Every structure is written in structure tokens, then in C-alpha cells.
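User: Continuing from earlier, I have the next pair ready.

Assistant: Great, send them over.

User: Here they are, in order.

Assistant: Folding the first of the pair now:
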Amino acid sequence: MEKMFLQSGDLTGVTFWLVSMAMIAATVFFLYEGLSVKKEWRLSLLVAGLVTLVAAVHYDYMRDFWVATNQTPVVYRYIDWLITVPLLMIEFFIILRAAGSAVGNGSFVRLLFGTLIMLVFGYMGEAELMNQALAFGLGMVGWAVIIYEIYAGAAGTAAKEAGAAVQSAFSAMRWIVLVGWAIYPAGYIAGVLMEGAVGAESLNQVYNLADFVNKILFGLIIWNLAVKDSEQASH
């Protein structure tokens, strides 16, 4: 698609640009910082960097799509989420393993399963490939599986047995999934089920802000934990 200039009054387009640049900066930061932490945490920071890298590439396309059409880039968003959201879920498993917690592979499978169910049915609903209300309900089942696993399931139980720093980081990450991710189904309800009760401009601004928080802040929490644990190990 040919590059188009961003208009000064296009606030939504501005948010696409800001998030795009922020994802690139976050990628450099996570990959660079991964070189200075304990080897047990390097995979976590690598995954955090991959999340923001994939998001940065897709935001470049989403930004241009919005500027050219002023329409929601549904396909690009879901391709991005289909890659980045499972990676974010894997982070729960990775940090517990890095901290030496006894968490089984079943936790990994349940987190991945819940993520795929949530995203596949979310896309099918927004793309009108099936009944949108039914797709929403099935997608919420996937989210519920994730919430259960990180609060009351094997991952949540393993986190209680970890050190204070891991428990604190794990708790913050859970809040992002519980509260930060609630923005997406709320947007689906307002933009799809309520037939455009919220305009495309407002919906995309909220989605962009949610991606900024849910991806970059998520990675920063892991980075903070990795740095603290590495500093303790060096003393």
C-alpha cells in the first residue's frame, strides 16, 4: 500500500503512529536489557521483545490502513494478536520456570488453548464468519480458561510457592490480563454487538491504548523482576 501523509486532525492516526514507535523502542530496550540479566531470565525478555517486535510490524500496516481508509484494520489486528497474545501467555509459564517453581506442562497447554479459543472466535465474530453473539460467548470461554489458570489453576498455585518478587510480578501481570484485557470484549460489545454504538475512531484509540499497556507494560513488569533477581544473585 502506498504511504499516505497523516493529517493533523486525525487523532486516531496519531495514536497508531505513537504505538508503532513505542513498540519499536520497547523491542530495542527488551533485547538490549536481556543481555545483562541472569540467563534464567533471558528467554523471558526475548519473548517480551518478540511481542513488541511483532506488534511494531503490524502497527506499521495498521497505521497505513487507517490513514488510507479510516476503517478498523480487523485482519491485521487479529494476525498480530494471534502471535503476540499466546507469547504473553507463555510468559506466565516461563517466569515460573525461571524462578524454579514447580509448574507442569499442562498449565502451558491450558493457557495456549484458552488464548486460541478466545482469538479464533473473536475474529470469526468480527469478520462476520459466524453468529457474532455466539462467537463472543465462545471467545469469553477462552478468556475464562486463562483467568482460572492464572488465578486458581496450576499456574496460580505455583506462583504462591515462589518468592516475593515473583509473586508481586505475577500478581501485576494477572491484573493486566483481568482488567487490561477487559477493554477488548468491551470494544467488541460496543463496536459489533451494539452495531457501532462506538465509532471506529474511538474504538481504535482505545484498542491502541490497550495494546500499548498490555504489551509494553507487561514486558516492563518482567524486566523489573529479571533485574531485581539478577542484582540479588550478584551480591
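And the other member of the pair:
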Amino acid sequence: MGKPYRPKDHYFQRAKQRGFRARSAFKLEELVQRFGLLRPGGRVLDLGSAPGGFLQVIARAVGPSGLAVGVDLVPVRPFSEQWVRTAVVDVLADDARELVEAVASGPYDAVLSDMAPKTTGVRATDEARSLRLAERALELARALGRPGSSFVTKLFMGGDFEVFRAQVREAYREVKVVRPEATRSASNEIYLVGLGLRAPVD
């Protein structure tokens, strides 16, 4: 049994101290440090970007010569950095790819997803909804990522996890399963990291 949920835990306080909009920024910082996902001048797409914790890390990493694009169902508070662009996009919509490319066309060097469904408390339902978002993130990453690009998606560990991991392995040369230190102890979320998007086969 996990520890009780503490909304103002250690990482919450650290996020306030460092000016991060969300504690999720620490999760991405760890993934970047471990796998070298971001670099100056990179073009990065952030799915489910509100309130902007991931985008803050991305913007600092890619710098003025790069581009950070964030989309979410709700508006993201504007950034002062000119190389950050945001838009309201439903990634499950049929025209999601077109709407993303209207903000900035691909290809991208990394596609990151911190998307999570509104939880119902019914584990099977929540896992299924989380998986659908992760599947959509993978679809967009394969469509908009350049060969060799990276992919990160959050999802709830569930019965179809291995099937989804196999799909990621088909698309990327390396696949890692990570539970960042900043993840709440009671959470069943994990991150899948795909490294080296395979070039499409003609």
C-alpha cells in the first residue's frame, strides 16, 4: 500500500523554489539527464503540456535556436520565450496532426507526452483511457518525429502494457521503462522512453 497522497510534498516545495509551474518538471529533468533527450537547437513537441512544467524544461534546454511546441485541451499560460508556442488541441481528434502542424510543422527531434485522463477511480477504466492517450502520442510521434528522434509517454501500468511496449519497440531502436523519482509513491504511472525512431519502410 502506497503512502497517502500529500499535495504539498517535497517536490511541490522544490518546484515553487525553482519557479517551475508543476512538479512534473523534475520527472522530465531526470529523463533528460539519463537519456539525453533534449539539446540546444532541438525541435520538441509536448503533448498535454498544461500547466507548462515540461515546457519550462524544454525551453531552457533547446534555447533560442530551438523550438518548443506545447498543446493541451486547456490553454497554457503564455511564456516569455519567443521560441515557445502553445495551442489548444484535442490530440484524440481526427485532425490533431493537422492542428499541431499548423502551430509548427515537423519533423521534431523529440515528442513528449505527460497526458493523463481524468481518473474515475475505476482502475480498468483509467488504465484503458491512459493507454488510449499513450497510443495516440505514439501515433503522433511516428508521424511527426524525424528518424532517430526520441519519444516519451506517461501511462498507467495495466494489463495491456506489454502489448503497447511491443508497439513502441517496433518503432524505436531502444525502449526503456522508467519510474522517475518525483513520481508520487501511491501512483501507478510509469514512463516509456523510445530512443532512435526507425526510418519508415517504403
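Worth noting for the second one:
Strands lie at 43-47, 67-72, 84-88, 108-113, 145-156, 172-178, 189-197. The chain has a mean pLDDT of 90.
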